[in-house]
Amino acid sequence: MAGPRKDLYHRYEPIRRYVEVGFWIVVMALQALFNTTVAMVDARSRAVPRETWEIVVWEGSSHLVLLLLVPAIVALERRLSPLASLAPGRLMRYLAWHLAASVVFSLVHVMAMFALRSLAYAAAGEHYAFGGWAAQWGYEYLKDVRAYVSIVFGIWAYRLFMLRWQGEARVLDAPDEAPEGLQGPPRPTEAAPAPAADEPPPPPAVPAPPPAPARPERFLVRKLRREFLIAAGDIDWLQAEGNYVGLHVNGHDYLLRATLTDFLTQLDPALFVRVHRSHAVNLSRLREIEPLDGGDARLHMHDGSTVPCSRRYREALRGATAS
What we know:
Number of domains: 2
Shape: elongated
Strand order of the largest sheet: 3-2-1-6-5-4-8-7
Protein backbone atom coordinates (compact mmCIF):
# COMPACT_ATOMS: atom_id res chain seq x y z
CA MET A 1 0.00 0.00 0.00
CA ALA A 2 2.91 2.36 0.65
CA GLY A 3 3.87 2.52 -3.03
CA PRO A 4 0.51 3.69 -4.45
CA ARG A 5 0.07 6.16 -1.58
CA LYS A 6 3.51 7.58 -2.18
CA ASP A 7 2.88 7.92 -5.92
CA LEU A 8 -0.49 9.59 -5.31
CA TYR A 9 1.04 12.12 -2.93
CA HIS A 10 3.86 12.95 -5.33
CA ARG A 11 1.37 13.40 -8.16
CA TYR A 12 -0.67 15.71 -5.96
CA GLU A 13 2.22 17.88 -4.74
CA PRO A 14 2.86 19.78 -8.04
CA ILE A 15 -0.82 20.76 -8.32
CA ARG A 16 -1.36 21.24 -4.59
CA ARG A 17 -1.57 25.06 -4.69
CA TYR A 18 -3.97 25.01 -7.62
CA VAL A 19 -6.24 22.55 -5.79
CA GLU A 20 -6.15 24.61 -2.60
CA VAL A 21 -7.02 27.84 -4.41
CA GLY A 22 -9.66 26.11 -6.51
CA PHE A 23 -11.24 24.58 -3.42
CA TRP A 24 -11.88 27.96 -1.79
CA ILE A 25 -13.13 29.45 -5.06
CA VAL A 26 -15.64 26.62 -5.48
CA VAL A 27 -16.73 26.80 -1.84
CA MET A 28 -17.32 30.55 -1.95
CA ALA A 29 -19.07 30.34 -5.33
CA LEU A 30 -21.44 27.62 -4.13
CA GLN A 31 -22.14 29.48 -0.91
CA ALA A 32 -22.86 32.69 -2.83
CA LEU A 33 -25.18 30.82 -5.20
CA PHE A 34 -27.05 29.18 -2.32
CA ASN A 35 -27.44 32.45 -0.38
CA THR A 36 -28.53 34.30 -3.53
CA THR A 37 -31.23 31.71 -4.22
CA VAL A 38 -32.51 31.87 -0.64
CA ALA A 39 -32.51 35.68 -0.67
CA MET A 40 -34.41 35.80 -3.97
CA VAL A 41 -37.09 33.46 -2.61
CA ASP A 42 -37.31 35.51 0.57
CA ALA A 43 -37.55 38.78 -1.39
CA ARG A 44 -40.81 37.69 -3.01
CA SER A 45 -42.60 37.68 0.34
CA ARG A 46 -41.45 41.16 1.33
CA ALA A 47 -43.67 44.21 1.06
CA VAL A 48 -40.95 46.00 -0.94
CA PRO A 49 -39.28 43.34 -3.10
CA ARG A 50 -35.68 43.79 -4.13
CA GLU A 51 -34.41 43.65 -7.67
CA THR A 52 -32.53 40.52 -8.68
CA TRP A 53 -29.40 42.46 -9.55
CA GLU A 54 -29.31 43.97 -6.05
CA ILE A 55 -29.38 40.56 -4.41
CA VAL A 56 -26.65 39.32 -6.74
CA VAL A 57 -24.51 42.36 -5.89
CA TRP A 58 -25.01 41.87 -2.15
CA GLU A 59 -24.07 38.20 -2.06
CA GLY A 60 -21.42 38.45 -4.75
CA SER A 61 -19.59 41.33 -3.06
CA SER A 62 -19.72 39.63 0.35
CA HIS A 63 -18.33 36.30 -0.82
CA LEU A 64 -15.74 37.90 -3.09
CA VAL A 65 -14.26 39.76 -0.12
CA LEU A 66 -14.40 36.59 2.00
CA LEU A 67 -12.48 34.74 -0.71
CA LEU A 68 -9.81 37.45 -0.84
CA LEU A 69 -9.40 37.27 2.94
CA VAL A 70 -8.72 33.50 3.00
CA PRO A 71 -4.94 33.82 2.30
CA ALA A 72 -4.59 36.20 5.25
CA ILE A 73 -6.31 33.70 7.55
CA VAL A 74 -4.10 30.89 6.22
CA ALA A 75 -0.97 32.93 6.98
CA LEU A 76 -2.24 33.84 10.45
CA GLU A 77 -3.17 30.25 11.30
CA ARG A 78 0.29 29.12 10.18
CA ARG A 79 1.86 31.62 12.58
CA LEU A 80 -0.43 30.68 15.45
CA SER A 81 -0.30 26.90 14.99
CA PRO A 82 2.50 26.43 17.62
CA LEU A 83 0.08 27.87 20.23
CA ALA A 84 -2.70 25.42 19.35
CA SER A 85 -2.11 23.01 22.23
CA LEU A 86 -4.09 21.92 25.28
CA ALA A 87 -1.79 23.82 27.64
CA PRO A 88 -4.05 26.45 29.30
CA GLY A 89 -1.70 29.41 28.79
CA ARG A 90 -0.92 28.62 25.15
CA LEU A 91 -4.52 27.77 24.32
CA MET A 92 -5.80 31.04 25.80
CA ARG A 93 -3.28 33.04 23.76
CA TYR A 94 -4.28 31.10 20.64
CA LEU A 95 -7.96 31.89 21.18
CA ALA A 96 -7.24 35.52 22.10
CA TRP A 97 -5.31 36.07 18.88
CA HIS A 98 -8.11 34.57 16.82
CA LEU A 99 -10.71 36.63 18.65
CA ALA A 100 -8.82 39.83 17.84
CA ALA A 101 -8.28 38.66 14.27
CA SER A 102 -12.01 37.98 13.86
CA VAL A 103 -12.76 41.63 14.69
CA VAL A 104 -10.26 42.86 12.11
CA PHE A 105 -11.59 40.29 9.64
CA SER A 106 -15.15 41.58 10.07
CA LEU A 107 -14.17 45.25 9.79
CA VAL A 108 -12.23 44.65 6.57
CA HIS A 109 -15.04 42.50 5.20
CA VAL A 110 -17.73 45.12 5.89
CA MET A 111 -15.74 48.08 4.57
CA ALA A 112 -14.64 46.31 1.38
CA MET A 113 -18.14 44.94 0.85
CA PHE A 114 -19.61 48.45 1.27
CA ALA A 115 -17.13 49.87 -1.24
CA LEU A 116 -17.93 47.22 -3.87
CA ARG A 117 -21.68 47.62 -3.42
CA SER A 118 -21.40 51.42 -3.66
CA LEU A 119 -19.51 51.09 -6.95
CA ALA A 120 -22.09 48.65 -8.33
CA TYR A 121 -25.02 50.86 -7.32
CA ALA A 122 -23.31 53.94 -8.77
CA ALA A 123 -22.83 52.10 -12.08
CA ALA A 124 -26.56 51.36 -12.08
CA GLY A 125 -27.40 55.00 -11.28
CA GLU A 126 -28.52 54.16 -7.76
CA HIS A 127 -27.31 54.99 -4.25
CA TYR A 128 -26.39 52.27 -1.77
CA ALA A 129 -27.30 53.00 1.87
CA PHE A 130 -25.68 50.76 4.44
CA GLY A 131 -27.73 52.03 7.39
CA GLY A 132 -26.46 52.78 10.88
CA TRP A 133 -22.86 51.60 11.02
CA ALA A 134 -22.83 50.69 14.71
CA ALA A 135 -25.95 48.53 14.70
CA GLN A 136 -25.32 47.15 11.22
CA TRP A 137 -21.72 46.16 11.97
CA GLY A 138 -22.81 44.30 15.11
CA TYR A 139 -25.18 42.26 12.99
CA GLU A 140 -22.52 41.66 10.34
CA TYR A 141 -19.94 40.66 12.97
CA LEU A 142 -22.16 37.86 14.26
CA LYS A 143 -22.33 36.47 10.72
CA ASP A 144 -18.62 37.06 10.09
CA VAL A 145 -17.60 35.16 13.23
CA ARG A 146 -19.34 32.06 11.88
CA ALA A 147 -17.59 32.47 8.54
CA TYR A 148 -14.23 33.06 10.25
CA VAL A 149 -14.53 29.97 12.45
CA SER A 150 -15.57 27.86 9.46
CA ILE A 151 -12.54 28.99 7.45
CA VAL A 152 -10.14 28.38 10.36
CA PHE A 153 -11.60 24.93 10.94
CA GLY A 154 -11.26 24.08 7.26
CA ILE A 155 -7.61 25.18 7.26
CA TRP A 156 -6.90 23.20 10.44
CA ALA A 157 -8.58 20.03 9.17
CA TYR A 158 -6.75 20.20 5.83
CA ARG A 159 -3.38 20.73 7.53
CA LEU A 160 -4.01 17.77 9.84
CA PHE A 161 -4.91 15.58 6.85
CA MET A 162 -1.77 16.63 4.98
CA LEU A 163 0.41 15.87 8.01
CA ARG A 164 -1.06 12.39 8.23
CA TRP A 165 -0.65 11.86 4.49
CA GLN A 166 2.82 13.33 4.15
CA GLY A 167 4.08 11.84 7.41
CA GLU A 168 5.11 13.58 10.62
CA ALA A 169 8.38 12.71 12.34
CA ARG A 170 9.62 13.25 15.87
CA VAL A 171 12.89 12.61 17.65
CA LEU A 172 12.85 9.41 19.65
CA ASP A 173 12.92 10.04 23.38
CA ALA A 174 16.14 9.19 25.20
CA PRO A 175 15.91 6.01 27.35
CA ASP A 176 14.82 6.70 30.89
CA GLU A 177 17.23 6.07 33.74
CA ALA A 178 16.60 3.00 35.81
CA PRO A 179 14.37 3.60 38.85
CA GLU A 180 16.09 3.91 42.17
CA GLY A 181 14.72 0.57 43.33
CA LEU A 182 16.42 -1.21 40.39
CA GLN A 183 19.79 0.43 40.74
CA GLY A 184 20.83 -1.61 43.78
CA PRO A 185 22.02 -0.33 47.15
CA PRO A 186 24.60 2.45 47.10
CA ARG A 187 28.17 1.30 47.51
CA PRO A 188 30.04 2.52 50.55
CA THR A 189 32.65 5.11 49.73
CA GLU A 190 36.05 5.23 51.31
CA ALA A 191 37.14 8.48 52.87
CA ALA A 192 40.07 10.11 51.14
CA PRO A 193 43.27 9.94 53.24
CA ALA A 194 44.21 13.19 54.92
CA PRO A 195 47.42 14.73 53.61
CA ALA A 196 50.48 14.66 55.87
CA ALA A 197 51.40 17.82 57.71
CA ASP A 198 54.53 18.40 55.62
CA GLU A 199 52.85 17.69 52.27
CA PRO A 200 51.39 20.51 50.13
CA PRO A 201 47.63 20.45 49.65
CA PRO A 202 46.45 18.72 46.45
CA PRO A 203 45.67 20.95 43.46
CA PRO A 204 42.02 21.84 42.99
CA ALA A 205 40.09 19.47 40.81
CA VAL A 206 39.61 20.60 37.22
CA PRO A 207 35.91 20.55 36.33
CA ALA A 208 35.05 18.10 33.60
CA PRO A 209 33.98 19.63 30.28
CA PRO A 210 30.25 19.65 29.71
CA PRO A 211 28.99 16.63 27.81
CA ALA A 212 28.40 17.04 24.10
CA PRO A 213 24.74 17.56 23.19
CA ALA A 214 22.97 14.33 22.41
CA ARG A 215 22.31 13.88 18.72
CA PRO A 216 19.30 11.89 17.59
CA GLU A 217 20.20 8.80 15.63
CA ARG A 218 16.69 7.78 14.62
CA PHE A 219 13.29 9.36 14.13
CA LEU A 220 9.86 7.89 14.57
CA VAL A 221 7.57 8.65 11.62
CA ARG A 222 3.79 8.37 11.74
CA LYS A 223 2.17 8.17 8.34
CA LEU A 224 -1.33 6.96 7.49
CA ARG A 225 -1.70 4.96 10.74
CA ARG A 226 1.72 3.39 10.29
CA GLU A 227 4.88 3.94 12.32
CA PHE A 228 8.43 3.29 11.22
CA LEU A 229 11.95 4.47 11.95
CA ILE A 230 14.37 6.45 9.82
CA ALA A 231 18.04 6.97 10.57
CA ALA A 232 19.47 10.48 10.82
CA GLY A 233 22.19 9.54 8.35
CA ASP A 234 19.56 8.65 5.74
CA ILE A 235 18.31 12.24 5.51
CA ASP A 236 19.28 13.59 2.10
CA TRP A 237 18.43 17.24 2.72
CA LEU A 238 16.24 19.46 4.87
CA GLN A 239 13.94 22.37 4.11
CA ALA A 240 12.33 24.93 6.42
CA GLU A 241 8.54 24.90 6.04
CA GLY A 242 7.04 27.43 8.44
CA ASN A 243 7.03 25.90 11.91
CA TYR A 244 8.25 22.56 10.54
CA VAL A 245 11.37 21.11 8.97
CA GLY A 246 10.87 18.94 5.92
CA LEU A 247 13.04 15.82 6.04
CA HIS A 248 13.70 14.45 2.56
CA VAL A 249 14.64 10.78 2.86
CA ASN A 250 15.01 8.47 -0.15
CA GLY A 251 12.30 10.22 -2.12
CA HIS A 252 9.93 10.54 0.86
CA ASP A 253 9.05 13.77 2.63
CA TYR A 254 8.34 13.97 6.35
CA LEU A 255 7.65 16.95 8.58
CA LEU A 256 9.15 17.50 12.01
CA ARG A 257 7.93 20.28 14.29
CA ALA A 258 11.02 22.44 14.78
CA THR A 259 12.86 25.33 13.16
CA LEU A 260 15.69 24.56 10.80
CA THR A 261 18.20 26.47 12.94
CA ASP A 262 17.31 24.61 16.14
CA PHE A 263 17.17 21.23 14.45
CA LEU A 264 20.60 21.59 12.85
CA THR A 265 22.13 21.99 16.32
CA GLN A 266 21.03 18.40 17.00
CA LEU A 267 22.68 16.96 13.89
CA ASP A 268 26.33 16.18 13.20
CA PRO A 269 27.90 19.44 11.90
CA ALA A 270 30.50 17.41 9.99
CA LEU A 271 27.71 15.78 8.00
CA PHE A 272 24.91 18.34 7.74
CA VAL A 273 25.66 21.82 6.38
CA ARG A 274 23.37 24.76 5.84
CA VAL A 275 23.47 25.93 2.23
CA HIS A 276 20.55 28.35 2.12
CA ARG A 277 18.35 30.36 4.45
CA SER A 278 15.79 27.55 4.25
CA HIS A 279 17.85 24.53 3.14
CA ALA A 280 20.55 22.22 4.51
CA VAL A 281 22.11 19.12 2.97
CA ASN A 282 23.75 15.87 3.99
CA LEU A 283 27.27 16.09 2.53
CA SER A 284 27.42 12.32 2.03
CA ARG A 285 24.39 12.63 -0.29
CA LEU A 286 25.81 15.52 -2.32
CA ARG A 287 26.75 14.51 -5.88
CA GLU A 288 27.55 17.74 -7.75
CA ILE A 289 27.81 21.50 -7.21
CA GLU A 290 26.67 23.52 -10.24
CA PRO A 291 27.81 27.17 -10.10
CA LEU A 292 25.27 29.80 -11.15
CA ASP A 293 25.47 33.48 -12.03
CA GLY A 294 25.79 35.88 -9.12
CA GLY A 295 27.71 33.48 -6.88
CA ASP A 296 24.80 31.13 -6.16
CA ALA A 297 24.88 27.41 -6.92
CA ARG A 298 22.59 24.48 -7.56
CA LEU A 299 23.31 21.29 -5.62
CA HIS A 300 22.55 17.95 -7.26
CA MET A 301 21.82 15.20 -4.76
CA HIS A 302 22.20 11.45 -5.20
CA ASP A 303 18.42 10.99 -5.16
CA GLY A 304 18.13 13.15 -8.30
CA SER A 305 16.72 16.23 -6.53
CA THR A 306 18.29 19.69 -6.60
CA VAL A 307 18.77 22.08 -3.68
CA PRO A 308 19.53 25.82 -3.95
CA CYS A 309 22.76 27.13 -2.45
CA SER A 310 23.01 30.87 -1.86
CA ARG A 311 26.22 32.85 -2.23
CA ARG A 312 26.25 33.51 1.52
CA TYR A 313 26.85 29.81 2.26
CA ARG A 314 29.14 28.92 -0.65
CA GLU A 315 32.37 29.33 1.31
CA ALA A 316 31.12 27.26 4.23
CA LEU A 317 30.06 24.52 1.83
CA ARG A 318 33.41 24.61 0.03
CA GLY A 319 35.26 24.32 3.34
CA ALA A 320 33.08 21.46 4.53
CA THR A 321 33.51 19.44 1.34
CA ALA A 322 37.29 20.02 1.36
CA SER A 323 37.75 18.77 4.92
